Amino acid sequence: KENLLLEAISRSAMSFWIYYPATHIADTTEVLPSFKRSLSNGNIIENYPQCNVDDQIVYPEDINAYLKAFHKIDAGEKESAATVRVLQEGHYVWFDMHLTSLYDETGKQTKVICTAINIQKQKEAEFRFSRFNEDVVKKAGNFLYTYRLNLTQNICFEGTSSYASLLRLGRGHTVDSLFQAIIRYDAKNTDI
Question: Of 55, 120, 135, 159, which residue is 20 to 30 A from 49 by alpha carbon distance?
Fold first, then answer.
C-alpha cells in the first residue's frame, strides 16, 4: 500500500517529505527527483527549515510565510500551510505547502508529514487574469455611469459619466433614448 501511495505521489505535481520538529531535521528520501535537484544538502537535512532560507531556496518575499508555517508546527499545532516560491531547477516555482503533525499513542508530536503541490500554472493564470482585470479597471471610465431616472415618466433627469459627454445626454432625455445610446456606443467602442 505504501508503494502505491509513493507511486501516486511520483506521478503528481506533489512533493512529500518528513519533518522532525524536536530535532529540526527533514528526511527527503521520498522527495520527487525533480524537486530533489534543488536540495543540495542530501536526504537528511539538519537545521530545517532555516537551512532553506540560508541557502536561498525560499524566495525572499516568501520567507516569513514559510517560516511561520513551521513555527506553528513547532509550537504544537496539528496543521499549517503556506503558499511560497521555492527554487527548483534554477527558477523559483510556486508551491502550496501543507504540514500535518503525526502523534504517538501518548499524544506526543513525533513527526510532520509535509507535502508541496506545484501550483505554478495556476499562479501564472492568476497573474494573467490580474493583468486583464487591471486593463478593465483602466477602461472602467467608459463603463461606469450614474443617472437619476424617473422610470414612470420615462425621463432622465441627470447624467454624470464619460457616457454623458460622449453621448450628449443629460437632463430631459428619455430613459429609452439613454439606454439605446449606451447600447449603440458600447457596440461601436467596446474592445473587451
Answer: 120
